Amino acid sequence: MNTALWIVTSLLTVIYLLSGLGKLFVPREKMATMMKAARWTLDFQPGTLKAIGALEILGAAGLILPAVLDIAPILVPLAATGLALMMAGATIMRIRRGETKAALGDASYLALAAFVASGRFALEPFTG
Predict the structure, then answer these.
(1) CA within 20 to 30 Å of 14's CA: 25, 48, 61, 80, which one?
(2) Pseudo-torsion of CA 116, 61, 101, 51, nearest 10°?
(3) SS3 sequence, 84-99?
């Protein structure tokens, strides 16, 4: 179980880090033209997108750094919970926009983050 949690955590870290960096540094107009699934960015102000990007980067750091550095490892499941809540909001937004495929993708990230949160809170916590 510990290995599965580390694999999923690493995958989520890379995904959220890249996604957050994109939201911070790519203009929303350019992001919206890159792929159909990114058109939602035009519904938000640039500052809001940057805030979402910053939260994704902080969440990615919170998934890995506390455990690797052995400093407050309780932050790992808390970061996973925060990312799961963000993805719940993203899934709801996608459903409202009628983007079913993208909503399923966001829901899968939600499930992975919830798996890490529940795994690190109860199944394989870092502290015993």
Answers:
(1) 48
(2) 130
(3) HHHHHHHHHHHHHHCC
